[in-house]
Amino acid sequence: MTSSPLPESGAPLAHFVSTAPFDPYALKEMTPAQIRVNSASQLRLMWWKFKRHKLALASGIFLAVLYLMILVSEFLAPYNLHSRNVDFIHAPPQGIHLFHDGTFVGPFVYGREMTLDMDTLRRVYTEKPDDIEPLRFFCSGDPYRFWGLFDASTHFVCPAKDGQFFLLGTDRLGRDVLSRIIYGARISLTIGLLGITVSFILGIVIGGLAGYHGGIFDLVAQRIIEVLQSIPSIPLWMALAAIMPVTWSPILIYLGITLILGLLDWTGLARAVRSKLLSLREEDYVLAAQLMGAKSSRIIGRHLVPGFMSHLIATATISIPGMILGETALSFLGLGLRPPITSWGILLTEARSVSVIAFYPWLLFPTIPVILVILAFNFLGDGLRDAADPYK
Amino acid sequence: AARRLEPDFLVPLMNAGKLPTAAGRLPKNPRVVDLAAMGRDVGKYGGTARMLIGSAKDIRLMTICGYARLVGYDDKLDLSADILESYEHVDEKVFTFKIRAGHRWSDGRLFTAEDFRYCWEDVILDENLRKGGLPTDLLVDGKPPRFEVIDELTVRYSWDGPNPDFLPRLAAPQPLTIVMPAHYMQQFHQKYQNANRLAGLMKEQRTKSWVDLHIKMSRSYRPENPELPTLDPWRNTTKPPAEQFVFERNPYFHRVDQNGTQLPYIDRFLLNVSSSSIITAKACTGESDLQATGIDFADYAFLKDAEKRYPVKVGLWKATRGSKIALLPNLNYGDETWRGLLQDARFRRALSLAIDREEINKVVFYGLARPSSDTILPDSPLYKPEYAAAWSSHDPDAANRLLDELGLQNRDSDGIRLLPDGREAQIVVETAGESTLDTDVLELITDHWRKIGISLFIRTSQRDVFRSRTMGGQIMMTMWPGLENGVPTRDMNPSQLAPTTDDQLQWPVWGMHYLSNGQKGHAPEVAEAARLVELLKSWYHARTPEERTDIWGEMLAIYTDQVFSIGIVNQTLQPILRSAHMRNVPERGLYGFDPTCYLGVYMPDTFWYGEDIA
Amino acid sequence: MMRYILWRIAAMIPTLLIISALIFTIIELPPGDYFESYISELQAQGEGVDMQEIEELRAQYGFDKPPILRYFHWVGGMLTGDFGYSFEYQLPVNEVVGDRLWLTILVSFCTILVTWLVAFPIGIYSATHQYSWGDYGLTFLGLLGIAIPNFTLALILMYFANIWFGISIGHLMDQKFLGEPMSWEKAKSILEHLWIPVIIVGTAGTAGMIRRLRANLLDELQKQYVVTARAKGLHPFRALIKYPLRMSLNFFVADIGSILPQIISGAEITAIVLSLETTGPMLIKALQSQDMYLAGSFLMFLAFLTVIGMLISDIALAFLDPRIRLQGGSAK
Amino acid sequence: MNSGADLLRIEQLGIAFKMMGGQLEAVRNASLRVLPGKVTALVGESGSGKSVISQAVMGILPNTASATGRILFCDPENPGNPIDILSLPRDGKAIRDLRGRRLGKIFQEPMTSLSPLHTIGNQVGEALRIHEPVSKAETRDRVEEMLGLVGFANPARTREMYPFELSGGMRQRTMIAMALICRPSLLIADEPTTALDVTIQAQILQLLRELQAKLNMAMLLITHDLGVVANVADEVVVIYRGEIMEAGPVETIFRRPAHPYLKGLMAAVPHFDMKPGERLKALREIPVNADTLIGKRKQERQGPEILLSVRNVIKTYGTRKSSWFGKNTAAGVRAVDDVSFDVRRGECLGIVGESGCGKSTLSKIVMRAVTPDSGSVTYFDRDGKAIDVLSSEGNDLKTLRTKIQMVFQDPVSSLSPRMTIQNILSEPLEIHDRGSAQERKEKVLRLVQAIGLDQSALNRYPHSFSGGQRQRIGIARALALGPDLMICDEPVSALDVSVQAQILNLLKDLQKELGLTYFFISHNLAVVDYMADRIAVMCGGRIVELAPRETLMRSPVHPYTKALLAAVPFPDLDRPLDFAAVQACGATGTASWAAQFRADNDDNALAAADLGGGHIVLARRNADVRELQP
Ligand SMILES: Nc1ncnc2c1ncn2[C@@H]1O[C@H](COP(=O)(O)OP(=O)(O)OP(=O)(O)O)[C@@H](O)[C@H]1O
Ligand SMILES: Nc1ncnc2c1ncn2[C@@H]1O[C@H](COP(=O)(O)OP(=O)(O)OP(=O)(O)O)[C@@H](O)[C@H]1O
Ligand SMILES: [Mg+2]
Ligand SMILES: [Mg+2]
To answer: How much is the pLDDT for B166?
Structure first.
């Protein structure tokens, strides 16, 4: 009996017996952290895992803030959605300054003057170096009707009295781009998600049933998918836009059409779900669940779809831009949202000529929130994916 | 100086003996264009002009801008003979046309009275070809003219009553067709072609009947048939469908400059089909040598900027429309209450007064247009300032008063007026929404009208359904360009001011009534509109110029005072882009379809390339 | 399997019939017809129309008859290879499409190719280098592509390509080559212009593909059989290509049926903005002007592609994953 | 035989897994070695870290693991230059060059270790293609040769098949073929024979020995079967909870076990000489209260005697290749061939048989997971109601699903990879709406404890368990609903003898107290002997012999049964297996059978002959019963 089980290389093995105390009933004692983990629910575990993904967490918080912001757009926007300033048409963005001539003044902008160059017919804005227009905060500005409920006029930030403050410039009617972006968030961040939800529910349910049951169910579902996929959205929009009643408000029409698009958009997902399930359903754990007497809905929902979660999350996050910008293509053809409603997509369609890119590039600012939101959703999706990943 | 009288372009053909020299190609008595008198320079031959068009159908621009007509307007809008050597008429009843001797079609065949005869007897009077009967323009009191061939080069049309419209119709952008290349067209005519050959041709052209074949092969307005002989300065050589249409000079064109050089100067026009959205961008990168369509005033700054980088020049012409855009209240609207209001002049006047035209002008037109009602421009000899001023000032108070007077004094909590039956006063304006201009202006008007308690909703739809829906009373108001011809002379037909056709969106049903001779639609129930119809009828019979002037005046007064259409601004500017090397393109001009035919009356055949030819 | 394929091909007939009826309805749905829009277009320019002639045309093309008759006429025509008549071009539909079809195929083919060439390596890279700078950077680029609407991207690219490289605005070739026969110069010009639409149309699909591939790969990378492959000494990259990638192809294969139609219709707006000589703008225009036979036959063509694509996709799926039983129910 | 330096030296190996809430130290301070040409057996409790060690040797630990210590591999190709595997870059060229070529590994769980999308031939030949410049044809030949060596009757056909078309044992043999194809110098075999019947097991062991002798191949053998250890190992290392307890030459270990754990292990081995009613001596006894565990009253054995009756069941699998062109069953495999038997209430019916003879298929037919071509399966309820298993619907089906439960042969793939153990175990309860959420939670905890895991297992996902642990989870899940009939397909194959004893005792207790009925498939004849009341022997899709346990064990009639019994390895150095005597005697080896048991290509030649006393044997119709008697 030796103290190490390992002899010299090549030497014959001696009999080694561990001398450590041995108690077959001994249990490893657990740290409090382990106990906490052991008694947590699966959701809680996921949340903990999610939290470890800093970027996802940040994205989540960013989106949460954004969604909170759309509740108070009226307050946050320095101007109203339709406030026009005919003296500041196509005004470029304005910088915020803190110091004037080396002295601290607080946030302010320099006043500007517009002259029309009659030769080229361009509006030229010159800063007046001694016209200091300090910004006001929690101030009274354009009156608005908060969510259409009560009148108010308090804004987070407003220009100086009789001054102007166009952080992101103005458009061709002299409307503040920043304010329009803030208002546009309302539509862009909400309605499209509705469409995604509808199409996801349909896609997963129909694709799931077709893939799981196969046979005649699959056959019918596939034919429906074929038919729907064969009808491009643009002619459909054209037809729908033509027959929608005039008296409906634009938002209602848009909502309706988004829903209809959602109702038509599920096919791609359904096919992906179906084909994945066609192979997943052959797995033993599905059989195990069947033998336990689980219903199809449970098998699809608890066993199959989770195995497919990463794909679903990726697809969902990737469809978000489509939904946010969904109306741009339509607006481009003159079928989309109409004033007085606006969205980021609409704002972008307003910048639809090369001259905008050459002369008024700030009209492309709405792409920035779009990019941010899309990135945030994607990173959030990454975090969710990882949280649901058992191997992590 | 020894001027070259033959374009290089034609020399190879002449050398090959396929083409005679200039003397052999020109009529004995060509039309001499006195460039000096027009303040232009004599040019030289050569060059290709590129032009961008939004769709293949736009090749008709060449017919419009080429502007070779039997009789045509000059840039002062005076009528004179163009293709014809001369014309004369007796009391506008008997018209005698004299053809230029030796004038040839573009294929070299002589242009004679036979071509008129063929068109009259074998086409217009042919029952198969003209199932619907004669074109209304050729009827006076429902009766066609008598047509006579006086000699080889002289023809005559005579009516019992006066037809003051006849010559203007021949000079119109889309002219009345009374002449066709008989030698060419006969091969497609049942009467002249044996059935076998005809069937073969039909098969070749994939038409179902010889009538279709004849119609297809004879289209001259949209010159899709490269074979069709023409009298225009350039003839199409490309068969559609195509992305690029090549127009080449017509070697037999009948105009010469004062030195006797045959026009046109420019050899070829290349028409490239582009989507309308990038025409501006392309024009700005020097890809067009002459561009007026597809570019808009809003792009002026961008176009102007291109001057720095590319050899192009941009000029601004004055648009001839009565109003750049106007609101047309549908007096035949289906809803009883609304119709009542819309037919009430006070209501229309209130709407008009409420609009702040200065603001619109400033925002959209850099203040360069002129606020005005929908009426004629000062460039017209018939113009009076009061027409433009009628109800076009910004006076919301007066507007409010008018509306109160009308019994719309009740308002809801949002300050929107209530109709007598309790509904909100919401006006839905339909627009084709093709440019942001319409929607921008409407957005501004929405605000203006809110101040008088009227709410405005914008609905964009395809413009092709406007006509039938307006007819059906489903559209309340449309946004549409104002009066077509803003620079009329007393000799031009004032029908645009009266309900005369079904495509006038303010009164299509009444227009239909007139158009169908009372068969369809119904007569105007508004007295002033009915009066306009009467005045129009009396214009036809007016004998003296003064009489016509008076009629025009009264019609214009009624039209503007009644605010049958709500004009916004007119005299807007149209950018005209041209290659910097191109000469003789006027700096200023009137731009419009009718009557100036876009560039037509300014004679693009006299444009030429200076310096090194591109 | 053979049986299944035959059965599927048979099932295509009723499917296509249903689709044709739907397409016909959609095209008929907007009020008015081609002639209405023709008239109003002329009027918008201030031109007059000869209503008489229009009425004649209407009668000639059966627009005075009930739609159902026209439908049967159309479907019957298509079966005999007659796709109807384009009013707009005043030519039979087959002749109108002409060159555009080839250019469309060229653009679509390049787009698909580029999408795959870009998406696969990047997707694989992102999955194997999860949360590396490369992963973040490429993800960002990809997402940028879909975050910017196609037409904006088109305008931007077109503008800068002109400013920087002097490439003429829009179109698939320089103006001077329009209508010319094919030549070396023309081909070069086409290539010069091609990358812009390819990038624009490709970006959206690329990003989606990258993200989904990445997600699927991440799932598969952990599977035991990948470990087995590694234990055999297979290079991790080759192992990835052979095992997880093939597994992840499932979603991709499921989608191939709709790739072509999607790209063709996704390119419509881009093609309009760039004024490409492809079928997209023609289709949109035909729809807008209600040039119904042109639009209808075109949509049917897309539908046909879709249906065929679905069949191919199903067969490919069965090849890809031997466990998949297309025929049967859930019992083995 | 060359016994130079150690081929593999593992020094002070420590392996820990990062987990939520801390680390899990799977291996601590483990040191062991393998001599060239020799076999070192690593035995130990389930979950003690054996597989993890083997993964570390291959350099394929999961990302979440971290290892310390040294693993020195001294390649005979490059002697005197030991490589520390742990220090090689992960998946770098150096380690890749070793893997597959010099180091072969047989994975514990063959199903999941094979890709479902690639054919057997493709996967087996892959290592060859990576490491050796071979042509296509050569690869094919070598693959076929290897497949033949591991006991496939028709290698050419097997090469074209997909893993899911194979039985558990066949997949395991595929793994073996895969590991051996490049003739590695060190083979790491993680439970290489658990899914094989004893005859094939003997054949494989024989093969390994030959390779050892011929190529001087060394082997790190991880196994629970002390019989195998006794027969092939040179040195034995005993590991318990990640620490080495005892090590020494095989002689020492078997003759003079010193550590209490090893002693306990030896004592827990089931053997054929157990008295009826004798319990296995598990290292740990976990007292189980059947009532609270299953939550059901002790029940009298009531109702009809027969619980399940299977009649003339036939199942033929078509192969995938043929399915491309219509249904072509002729080319298929007859997995179950006209099988009839009854299961009596409260008994344990053991099934043994050749690997690939259709046991799993049969059990799946009984569960209605596979539809047979013909035949019937009837279940008799406690109140005598007969339910046709194959066609029941609605309520009947629901009853069946609670009354019959199954333990899958392949534990990994039968557990949803994305559910925690907590969810997996409470799922059957949720499906059938048993108890409140809290009650379910408690019940799950009791189940987990009953199978020898602790609470910390609840929130982990299946992949993070050892093979044996997963197997136990499968058992716990089957128990959750308190079924009447449990179909256990190799339920304890991955368990070491002591845990196996624990589980078998648990099953026995439940049988006694609740009257549970078992349908028990196993290759371990000692286990079957311990558990079963009657035993059926299957071969080639048919039941060749069915008899009460005693009878079958003492006086087997069928040549296949006899061969089986002869091939059992004993954990006793004095009773070595006579490898020479073990011949291929399964469905492929029928030729050596006595004439009255051979069908000789006549489908209808054989019928069940009753020898009395419930002893039935499959023999020629015309055979005389007495002739058959031993
Ligand atoms: N990927 C993993 N993540 C976390 N823990 C793991 C992982 N793999 C194994 N373990 C744990 O490590 C310990 C050792 O596992 P290992 O698989 O080596 O056991 P084993 O000795 O092979 O047991 P068996 O005989 O049951 O297969 C077990 O407690 C197991 O739960
Ligand atoms: N899905 C399938 N498709 C085709 N053949 C199959 C399928 N499943 C099993 N088989 C074949 O059926 C036969 C019996 O398989 P089964 O799994 O029942 O064997 P087994 O007795 O359980 O063997 P083991 O002891 O090795 O697990 C085998 O030859 C196998 O190849
Ligand atoms: Mg293990
Ligand atoms: Mg089995």
So the answer is: 92
Ligand 1 atom closest to the Cα of residue D471 is: 26
Report strand pairing: D374-380 vs D386-388.
antiparallel
For C14, half-sphere exposure in the C-beta direction (CA atoms, 13 angstrom radius) is 9
- Find, among C164, C163, C169, C172, the residue nearest to C192 by Cα: C172
Q: Domain limits at D350?
A: 298-532
Q: In a mutational test of the pocket of ligand 1, which residue from D465, D473, D498 has the highest number of ligand atoms less than 8 Å from its CB?
A: D465
- Round to whole Å and give the CA distance between B141 and B530: 19
Q: What is the mean pLDDT of chain B?
A: 90
DSSP letter at D249 equals E
Residues of chain A with Cβ-Cβ distance to B460 below 8 Å are 334-335, 338
Measured between beta carbons, the chain A residues lying within 8 angstroms of B446 are 340
Residues comprising chain D, all counted = 630
Q: Which residues of D touch C320 (CB under 8 A)?
A: 117
| Secondary structure class of B391 (helix, strand, coil) | coil
Check B464 against C50: CB less than 8 A apart: no
Q: Can you say how many angstroms the Cα of residue C32 is from the centroid of all Cα atoms in its chain? A: 28
Phi-psi region of B515 (alpha: psi -120 to 50; beta: other; left: phi over 0): alpha
- Give the angle subtended at the CA of D42 by the CAs of D40 and D47, to the nearest 5°: 165
Question: In this structure, is residue C329 part of a structural domain?
Answer: no
DSSP state for residue D588 in the 8-state scheme: G
In a shared domain, residues D334 and D463: yes
Report DSSP letters for C8-32, one per residue: HHHHHHHHHHHHHHHHHHHHHSSSS
Q: Contact B372/B555 with Cβ under 8 angstroms?
A: no
CA–CA gap between residue A240 and residue C248 (Å, rounded): 37
* For the CA of D166, the nearest ligand: 2
Tokens matching residue B537: 């009828």
Dist. CA A226–CA C313, nearest whole Å? 12
Q: Tell whether D503 and D583 lie within a shared domain.
A: no
Q: Please, which residues have CB within 8 angstroms of residue A219's CB and are 6 or more apart in sequence?
A: C11
Residues 6+ apart with CB under 8 A from D426: D440, D441, D443, D444, D480
Residue C181: how many CB atoms within 10 A of its CB? 6
Our count of domains for chain D comes to 3
Is residue D587's pLDDT more than 70? Answer: no
Residue D158 lies in a domain: yes
Residue D272 lies in a domain: no
Chain-centroid distance of CA B463 in Å reads 18
Q: Is A294 on the interface with D (CB under 8 A)?
A: yes
CB A93 within 8 A of CB A362: yes
Q: How far apart are CA C329 and CA C200, in angstroms?
A: 43
Selected residue with higher pLDDT from B468 and D573: D573
What's the angle, vertex CA D401, arms to CA D400 and CA D407, rounded to 5?
A: 115
List the single residue in B with minimal CA-CA distance to C98: B241
- pLDDT of residue C91 exceeding 90: no
What CA–CA distance (Å, rounded) separates D31 from D8? 10
pLDDT at B463: 67
- Residue B353 in contact with residue B398, Cβ under 8 Å? yes
The predicted pLDDT at position D274 comes to 81
CATH number at residue C286: 1.10.3720.10
Tokens 């210590």, residue located: D69
With the C-alpha atoms ordered A119, A123, A127, A131, is the resulting torsion angle positive or negative?
Answer: positive
- Which is higher by pLDDT, B197 or C65? B197
Structural domains of chain A ordered from first start: 1-32 (no CATH), 60-70+183-388 (1.10.3720.10), 94-165 (no CATH)
Residue A251: which residues within 8 A CB-CB, separation 6 or more? Answer: A187, A337, A341
* Neighbouring subunits of D (3+ Cβ pairs under 8 A): A, C
CB distance A56 to A50 below 8 Å: yes
Query: Three-state SS for C129?
Result: coil
* Beta bridge partner(s), residue D457: none
